[in-house]
Amino acid sequence: MSSLENSDSEGELNPETHKKSLEKLKKIDPDFYNFLEENDENLLNFDVDEGEESDKESDNENEDDTVHKPGPITGDSDESDFEAEDAKPVKGRVTLKMVEQWQTDLQSEDKIKLSTLTSVIKAFNAAMVRVTSEDGASKGEYKVEGSSVFNAVIQMCVLYLPGAIKKYLGMEQSGKDPQKCKHFVKIKSYLVAYLNDLLKLLSGVSSENILTVLLKHLHQMSNYVACFTRIAKQSLKKLIILWSTGDETVRVLAFLCILRITRNQQTALLDIVLKAMYMTYVRNSKFVSPTTWPGINFMRRSLVEMFSLDLNVSYQHVFLYVRQLAIHLRNAIVVQKIENRQAVYNWQYINSLHLWADLVSATSNKPQLQPLVYPLVMVIMNTIKLVPTHQYYPLRFHCVEILITLSKETNTFIPILPFLVEILSFDFNKKHKKVSMKPLDFNCILRLAKSQMMENGFKDAVIERLYGLLLEYMANESHSIAFPDLSLLAVIQLKNFLKTCSITNYTKKLRQLLEKIEENSKFIERERAKITFNLNDEKIITAWETSIKTKGTPLLAFFENWNKINRIQKRKKISKNDELAGELPVIKRAKIKESEQVAIPEKKGPLVLFPSDSEDDKEHFKLDQDESEAPKKEKKLKKKAPKKKKAVEEKKDKKKTMVEIEDTIDKADIVQDLSVNDW
Question: Which domain of life is it from (predicted)?
């Protein structure tokens, strides 16, 4: 072995000495030699020629003697040593320290580096791969492991990335288009990747709180979403679903994102968005109930805002959809079948009429949509006339409400009165077969069942709704110079109703309405007697009516007072205060000392209106009736004093629990802005 060491130390490879050393090894340690024979035959079968050839090659190629050339591998390799040539090596795991460093870099007052933004976006992608991929393995530069790191990466991107991108592009002061910034080309590909990952995360979340945070973040990134048409369409598709089906806060945030993305790329996206939102509105307004009604109202108001962005583009859509409604109505009139009537008498049809009436009313100061007022009014009026039976009075009331709104907002005369006074011809004296404890609410009904028409609540609801609509319509026309002539039909029908109807509750309400209408007619007649101008001059008549409206009419003042009370009652119904009323009243009683309890029976006075169920209060009540038994009762009061203390303590505990419940309710209603506290 010494010869081997000498040859190695000198850096020479001598085959003869090597063979001699192997022979000595065979004699000295035969077991080790047998082991070499079994496992490494190349070491024992060392050829002299190979050594010389290797020396020559090394001299010719000027290679270093220390370079090792491995021979053929005969044994099996370990799996851990194997690496695929195509697999990209993972740069490293993301740690909380790395996230903290990135946060400080994103918040720095100096210039934001592109490398910081790219690293953050790649880390976000690694976090998304962990959630979306089946195996959770990242193929990028970073790898996110653990829920704490995942949460930290998402929080960092949501809170600090939008401001850093804006600072990098130089958009802090000037609100210009991101595409016009000189550094936009450098970050464009990374923005596309980040927005795609953000949409994936938004699609996979169902929690309202997390959706709220992500939608606020998407609203901040809307300027960049609008730069890429494909991503904008994908995001709008998802946002429209949230706008129509999400909770209240989610709906509002989704609409704000839709509005911002659409306005930034209005020419390319407005047509698509208007069509998609309208079809979604119709699809989700099929069933109306007290729970779905607020969501349908919100969708309608937000759709009016979207259609108001460009009325020239909106006219084509509105004209097409009103024409479709007219075609359905014509088919129902011509072909008298149940299927055709059901195509008109449904909530989708009525809610579409509501939408277009609100849109035309909201844009009455602009001329683009005003030509659609007449066809829309004709569709609504013929919808009422399609099946003018008592069963469809709720649908009639809905249509009349739409017509009143149109008439008021567009300042157009619409003959609505005949549809209301026709209801007075119904026989209200007919005895009902059923007694209903709850009044009917027509807000969420289009058609009445036969069993509902037999109840007394049906007639009560009809009179109540008829009274409100007549009052509203006549109040809107109360400043008109032709009011005495307009109201003549209503006055005649109301007088006939009062003569024939024998139910006091109905006649009392409508007699009051008749008196107010006649009072307003006399007021207009007195004002008309002072007129000196020609009645053919429309401008002067308009100015006169405006002055009368500004001055105020008796009927309008009465309607405003009635409307305030009616709104309060509606709010009570929505909030269900009547159901909670039994729990709200609490009688506060002062503490009664033991020394004062003896003196109570000696006092004389009126009886307590609301005596409690406690035994000591019953004793007080008996003492007021019979003062002769006072000495006997004093002993009982002294014995029962501890029970009084227990009752007071129980009341205190109840008050504490009520306060705690109210505090939790108040806190739950608060919607906080996007901040670190959202985590």
Answer: Eukaryota
Residue in the block written with tokens 């309405």: 513
Residue 179 burial (CB < 10 Å; 0-12/13-18/19+)? middle
pLDDT, tens digit, 9 for 90 and up, residues 305-334: 999 999 999 999 999 999 999 999 999 999
612, amino acid identity: S
Q: For the segment 446-467, what is each residue's pLDDT rounded down to a tens digit?
A: 999 888 888 888 888 999 999 9
Q: Report which residue type is found at 527.
A: E
**Is pLDDT at 93 greater than 70 in this prediction?**
yes
pLDDT of residue 175: 64
How many structural domains is the chain composed of? 3
Query: Do residues 555 and 478 touch, judged by C-beta distance below 8 A?
Result: yes
Q: What does the DSSP assignment read for 289-319? A: -TTTHHHHHHHHHHHHHHHTS-HHHHHHHHH
Last-in-domain residue among 578, 602, 631: 578
Cα–Cα dist 19/7, whole Å: 13
Domain end call among 530, 550, 578: 578
Assess whether 453 and 571 both reside in one domain: yes
Residues 562 and 461 in one domain: yes
Residue 131 vs residue 402, higher pLDDT:
402
Tokens of 161: 């990335």
Given a cut of 80, is residue 90 above it in pLDDT?
no
Residue 645: which domain range?
594-668
Nearest of 450, 448, 473, 471 to residue 461 by alpha carbon: 448
d(CA 487, CA 473): 10
Cα distance between residue 660 and residue 133, in whole Å? 45
Residue 324: inside a domain: no
- 506 three-state secondary structure: helix
pLDDT, tens digit, 9 for 90 and up, residues 5-37: 444 444 444 666 667 777 777 777 777 677 677
Residues 479 and 548: beta-carbon distance below 8 Å: yes
Specify whether 487 is located in the same domain as 524: yes
Task: Supply the DSSP string of 642-656, one letter for each residue.
Answer: HHHHHHHHHHHHHHH
Name the amino acid, one letter, at 633. K
pLDDT (0 to 100) of residue 611: 36
pLDDT at 118 over 70: yes
Shared domain for 552 and 609, answered yes or no, is no
